[in-house]
Amino acid sequence: MAFSAPLSSSICFHTTPSPSFSSTTIPKLTTTTWPRRLPAPPAAIPPLAADVDGTTIAVIGGGSVAALAAVLSLADPERRRRLQAEEVGGGDKEVVREYFNNSGFQRWKKIYGDTDDVNRVQRDIRLGHSKTVENVLKMLADEGPLSGVTVCDAGCGTGSLSIPLAKEGAIVSASDISASMVAEAEKNAREELSGKDNLSVVPVLPKFEVKDLESLDGKYDTVVCLDVLIHYPQSKADGMIAHLASLAENRLILSFAPKTFYYNLLKRVGELFPGPSKATRAYLHAEADVERALQKVGWRIRKRGLITTQFYFARLVEAVPA
């Protein structure tokens, strides 16, 4: 799942070495530049409200921070989340599973797909997600051909990364907590990979399974987990990062919604406008916290980048054994 916000900026990917570690420079991608401007005024909120859930943040004017503080103090998103959890008989994980097997599946299937039946917010999130996938493929290809390389796609969604990896010859094990997502990914993979004679390598169909991150096992050259940490608070994300690292032999690639004052404020605003569908809880993560979690298990960040569009932002990091 992607995280989004009303931020207008260029889509960019770059390498910023950590002060403590050396880093391999990635050539900066040439991408479409969106004109930088202030977010839309508060009047833009009502038309977007129907598009907003826990990962699609409402637009707020830059001059409304003072008034917003009072509104946020009266909001009670935690009560809404408790009610969601009670309905499905569990906590965050059960809410996520329920959402992505039902209304969330229908929503994100459209965003990840190529249908024209999307609004401007969903179309922009689609662009942001596709840029994330594009950058991951570039990271992997920079190390050489992918033919025969084993990759674990943890949280595969509808197969937007698994399928292009298979086209490059990678041996992909893909999983998702949602049975609906896995079924869609399998269908998409068979349509795009079976009987294709025009590919440079003969693709192996990815192995798709319904699993949460905690249930993943095995060993892979590379583990990729895109836009999934948003469902984990930092206290649990540390353990999940350690678990994913234990599955990877050479590389671990993560994307997450970065925690900054501005993005955190926008997230709080979005909680006031949950939209008509049930939303999952969204957790932002400071890059320093993710880096510390990796260091604890003997890994270091080698490459890092930021992907932003008008309604999508994600920090992308590649870690390797220290």
From TrEMBL:
UniProt KW Methyltransferase keyword: yes
GO MF annotation list: magnesium protoporphyrin IX methyltransferase activity
InterPro entries in UniProt: Mg_prot_MeTrfase (IPR010251), Mg_prot_MeTrfase_C (IPR010940), SAM-dependent_MTases_sf (IPR029063)
Signal peptide limits: none
Superkingdom in the source lineage: Eukaryota
Assigned keywords, A-Z: Methyltransferase, Transferase
UniProt record, GO biological process: chlorophyll biosynthetic process; methylation
Entry annotated with the keyword Nucleotidyltransferase: no
Protein name, entry field: Magnesium-protoporphyrin IX methyltransferase
Organism: Parasponia andersonii (Sponia andersonii)
Lineage: Eukaryota, Viridiplantae, Streptophyta, Embryophyta, Tracheophyta
